[in-house]
C-alpha cells in the first residue's frame, strides 16, 4: 500500500490533492488539524493534515473471478497456484500493515508524531529501547521531516543515522594490549569463560600474542574444568587463584607473557561482597582493565541494575553475549547512552573462536532497525 501525508488549508483542498495524485480509489487513514508557519511561534495558521493510502493491487472483484473460471476438467498449473498464493499473501500483508497503522494511531492520538512514524516508534519499543530514547529518536527524525512527507525508506535511514550519532563518541575498541592484565566480570551464566576463550584464540592465532589464564571462579568446579580444557587446547598456562595471595602470585608468575586474562567468579550480582572482593584483587595491579560481560537475553531492567552494581569498578567497555538467542537488541543502545560506555564485543554462539563480533555504531543501528522493513 502506498501511503502519503498531505497538508492543505482545508479538507476540500486536501482531497483535491489526494485525488490528483492517488486517484479516486484512495482511502483516508487519518486527518487532524495542525498549526504551521508563524514567526517565533506566533501567528501560526490552522491547516489540515491528512494521511491517505492507495493499494496498487486491490483484490479482484467477484464478477471478474467468475469470468475467469476455468473448465472443470482443466488442471491448474503449479505456477498459477504459486502466483495466486503469493498474491493472497501480499494482500494479507497489506491488510496487516493497515491494521497496525490504525491500532497504533488509536493508541497514540496524544502523540505529536505523524501516523507513519508510529511504525518506527512501536518497533523501537518492541526492541526494548527505553521509551524516552525511542521518543528522542522519533523527535529527531520528525524535526528533519519539515513539511514534506518522508518515504518509509527515508524514515528508516534517518532513524539508523540518529542511532549512530547517539553513540558515535563512545569507544568500541575491545582489548588493545595497553594493559597487561584484563579481567572479565559479570553475573553467573552470561558466558564469561567461553567469551574469554574466544578472545584468547584471536590473540594467539591472529595477533601472535603469548597469553596466560588466571581463574578465581573456584565456586564452580565445572567452570575451572572448562577453562582448563580451553587452556589445554590453546596451549596456554593456567593458574587457579583461591585467595587474593594466590592471585598476586599468579600475576607475578606470568609477567613475561604479553597479556593475562582473568576469569572471575560468576556470582549473584546483588551480593555486595562479590564486588568488594573484586575491588580488593584490583588493588594489587594498576596495569589492569576490566570488561563487564552481560547477556542480551536478560531483562533491560536487570541489565541496568547489574551495571549499577559494578559502578565502583572502572569498567572499560561492556561485552554482550547470546545475541543469537534473542531478537531484542535495544539494551545495547540503552547501555551505551544511559551508562555512557562503549561496547567491546558481541558474541553470537558457543563456537570457539568463531562466534564473536567486533562492534561499531553501524552494526548496532542495523541490529536495532535492520529488520523493520520486513515487517
Describe this structure in words.
- With 375 residues, the protein is an alpha/beta fold.
- It is built from 13 helices and eleven strands.
- The chain has an eight-stranded mixed beta sheet, with helices on both faces. Strands 1-3-2 form a three-stranded antiparallel beta sheet, sandwiched between helices.
- Strand 2 and strand 3 form a beta hairpin.
- Helix 4 runs antiparallel to helix 5 and helix 11 runs parallel beside helix 12.
- The radius of gyration is 28 Å and the shape is elongated.
- About 3% of the residues have low confidence.
Q: Please report which band the strand proportion falls in: under 5%, 5-15%, 15-25%, 25-35%, 35-45% or over 45%.
A: 15-25%
**In what order do the strands lie side by side in the largest sheet?**
6-5-7-4-8-9-10-11
The description of the largest β-sheet is: 8 strands, mixed
Poorly predicted residue ranges: 62-68, 105-110
Helix content: 40-55%
- Tally the helices: 13
SSE pattern: EHEEHHHHHEHEHEHEHEHEHEEH
Question: Gist?
Answer:
By secondary structure, the protein is of the alpha/beta class. The chain contains 13 helices and eleven strands.
Topology of helices and strands:
Layout: E1 2-8, H1 11-22, E2 27-36, E3 45-54, H2 62-67, H3 78-107, H4 118-126, H5 131-145, H6 152-167, E4 181-185, H7 192-205, E5 211-215, H8 221-234, E6 238-240, H9 244-253, E7 259-263, H10 272-282, E8 288-295, H11 300-309, E9 315-321, H12 330-339, E10 342-347, E11 356-358, H13 361-369
Parallel strand pairs: 4-7, 4-8, 5-6, 5-7, 8-9, 9-10
Antiparallel strand pairs: 1-3, 2-3, 10-11
Helix pairs in contact: 4-5, 5-6, 6-13, 7-8, 11-12
Amino acid at each position: 500500500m502506498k501511503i502519503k501525508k498531505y497538508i492543505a488549508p482545508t479538507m476540500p483542498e486536501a482531497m483535491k490533492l489526494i485525488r490528483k495524485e492517488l486517484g479516486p480509489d484512495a482511502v483516508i487513514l487519518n486527518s487532524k488539524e495542525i498549526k504551521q508557519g508563524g514567526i517565533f511561534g506566533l501567528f501560526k495558521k490552522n491547516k489540515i493534515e491528512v494521511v491517505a493510502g492507495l493499494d496498487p493491487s486491490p483484490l479482484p472483484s467477484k464478477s471478474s473471478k467468475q469470468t475467469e473460471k476455468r473448465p472443470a476438467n482443466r488442471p491448474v498449473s503449479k505456477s498459477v497456484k504459486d502466483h495466486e498464493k503469493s498474491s493472497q499473501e501480499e494482500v494479507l500483508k497489506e491488510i496487516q500493515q493497515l491494521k497496525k497503522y490504525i491500532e497504533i494511531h488509536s493508541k497514540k492520538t496524544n502523540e505529536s508524531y505523524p501516523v507513519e512514524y508510529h511504525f518506527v516508534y512501536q518497533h523501537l519499543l518492541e526492541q526494548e529501547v527505553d521509551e524516552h530514547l525511542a521518543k528522542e529518536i522519533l523527535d529527531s527524525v520528525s524535526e528533519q521531516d519539515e513539511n514534506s512527507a518522508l518515504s518509509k525508506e527515508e524514515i528508516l535511514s534517518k532513524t539508523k543515522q540518529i542511532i549512530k550519532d547517539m553513540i558515535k563518541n563512545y569507544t568500541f575498541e575491545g582489548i588493545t594490549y595497553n594493559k597487561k592484565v584484563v579481567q572479565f566480570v559479570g553475573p553467573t551464566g552470561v558466558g564469561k569463560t567461553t567469551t574469554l576463550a574466544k578472545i584468547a584464540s584471536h590473540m594467539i592465532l591472529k595477533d601472535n600474542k603469548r597469553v596466560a589464564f588466571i581463574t578465581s571462579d573456584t565456586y564452580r568446579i565445572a567452570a575451572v574444568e572448562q577453562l582448563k580444557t580451553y587452556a589445554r587446547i590453546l596451549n596456554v598456562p593456567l593458574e587457579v587463584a583461591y585467595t587474593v595471595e594466590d592471585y598476586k602470585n599468579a600475576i607475578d608468575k606470568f609477567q613475561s607473557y604479553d597479556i593475562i586474562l582473568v576469569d572471575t567468579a560468576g556470582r549473584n550480582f546483588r551480593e555486595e561482597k562479590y564486588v568488594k572482593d573484586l575491588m580488593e584483587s584490583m588493588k594489587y595491579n594498576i596495569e589492569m582493565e576490566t570488561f563487564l560481560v552481560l547477556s542480551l537475553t536478560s531483562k533491560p531492567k536487570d541489565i541496568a541494575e547489574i551495571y549499577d552494581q559494578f559502578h565502583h569498578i572502572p569498567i572499560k567497555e561492556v561485552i554482550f553475549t547470546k545475541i543469537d538467542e534473542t531478537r531484542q537488541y535495544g539494551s545495547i543502545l540503552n547501555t551505551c547512552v544511559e551508562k555512557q560506555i562503549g561496547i567491546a564485543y558481541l558474541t553470537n554462539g558457543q563456537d570457539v573462536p568463531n562466534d564473536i563480533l567486533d562492534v561499531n555504531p553501524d552494526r548496532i543501528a542495523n541490529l536495532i532497525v535492520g529488520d523493520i522493513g520486513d515487517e
